[in-house]
Design brief:
The chain is mostly helical and 330 residues long. It is built from 14 helices and five strands. Bound molecules: adenosine-5'-diphosphate (ADP) and tryptophan.
């Protein structure tokens, strides 16, 4: 077995599905870390998983809009297209080629144990072959860049483990081509939604990152609270408004608010207004930047094309090794 040259710098990769507007859970659980990681001594690859989204988004106009929205969101939130390779998954059709090759060695039993597939079918999604083999395509995304580190939320850990299993199997059968990717859990792994469950597009309990004005107010005022009367002391630990507020506040601010909760005399309405203020303040600059970028679609498209070119170069390098390792080429 010969060892193949690996990229010298560590590679970090992650993807986000364009399946709706990004919300505070996506921001604190994913986007913020992605942007921060670009400061590390590593090559960062981030992509909009539009092939994956086809498993659940069946309206072409909505898919197109969602892809643009995710790109605008990332760039507005500070992703520098010169510091990270940011691209559309479908600009890298090689990933489907690799997914096919990986599917010939991914055990059925492995995929049958996938929790996310079962959950999606239980929620009423049509059980297509694509939905079932979703983790194989995800393994291809990760392996095609020969990634070393994949920052994800807790819900994606099983997919990462499947990717590692598939990589090990490939390397054993055909020789070492893929480094084994590690995952890194993001710190905020469970941002609560307006109903206290995990914030998720699928639960209709989101506060969108770029909601503002009336829409933002409606979402924040709609956060479920208990019926403790205004004058009574309240427990910050069980309050979803407090949990969300903490994401935006310094340790001192959190402590000051917690004391006011415990002292009584502060209503949930006041806490919600403060949260609203925090959100407005935190995203003010990003909102402005998003408006500017939305007015300049050519610039955004140029960045996506630039990302796609760099990602394709990395993917082609891997695919040459893969095609040769499996015997499709000399
Ligand atoms: P959704 O549940 O809204 O469909 P996705 O599954 O598309 O969100 O998640 C995209 C990224 O955002 C993933 O890395 C995921 O772990 C993270 N994420 C989503 N919701 C939350 C949340 N409520 N708290 C923390 N991270 C989250
Ligand atoms: N499945 C991920 C999610 O729903 C998105 C995704 C697709 C991804 N391919 C990936 C994440 C590769 C990390 C690496 O959030």
């Amino acid at each position: 077995m010969t060892s193949k040259p690996s990229p010298v710098r560590k590679r970090i990769l992650s993807g986000v599905q364009p399946s709706g507007k990004l919300h505070l859970g996506n921001y604190f659980g994913a986007v913020r870390q992605h942007v921060a990681l670009t400061a590390e001594d590593a090559e960062c690859f981030y992509f909009i998983a539009d092939y994956h989204a086809l498993t659940t988004v069946h309206d072409p106009a909505a898919l197109r809009q969602n892809v643009i929205d995710v790109a605008l969101d990332y760039f507005a939130l500070g992703l520098d297209p010169d510091k990270a390779v940011f691209f559309r998954q479908s600009d890298l059709p090689q990933v489907c080629e690799l997914a096919w090759i990986l599917s010939t060695l991914a055990p059925m039993g492995l995929l049958e144990r996938a929790v996310s597939y079962k959950e999606k079918v239980d929620r009423g999604l049509e059980s297509s072959v694509g939905l079932f083999t979703y983790p194989v395509l995800m393994a291809a995304d990760i392996l095609i860049c020969r990634s070393n580190l994949v920052p994800v939320g807790r819900d994606q850990v099983q997919h990462l483990e499947m990717c590692r299993d598939i990589a090990v199997k490939f390397n054993l059968r055909y020789g070492e081509v893929f480094p084994l990717p590690e995952y890194r859990l993001t710190k905020e792994s469970k941002v609560p939604g307006t109903d206290g469950q995990k914030m998720s597009k699928s639960y209709g309990n989101t506060i969108d990152i770029f909601a503002e004005g009336k829409a933002l107010k409606k979402a924040v005022m709609g956060i479920v609270t208990d019926s403790t009367p205004l004058e009574a002391p309240k427990d910050p630990a069980t309050c979803h408004v407090f949990a969300l507020h903490s994401l935006f506040a310094s340790a001192e601010e959190q402590e000051a608010l917690a004391s006011r909760y415990r002292a009584g005399g502060m209503g949930y309405g006041a806490a919600k207004s403060e949260l609203l203020g925090k959100i407005d303040e935190h995203f003010a600059a990003a909102r402005q930047r998003r408006r500017e970028l939305a007015a300049d679609p050519e610039r955004v498209e140029r960045w996506l094309v630039q990302g796609a070119e760099k990602a394709r170069a990395a993917a082609e390098e891997t695919m040459r090794l893969v095609r040769s390792a499996v015997g499709l080429r000399p």
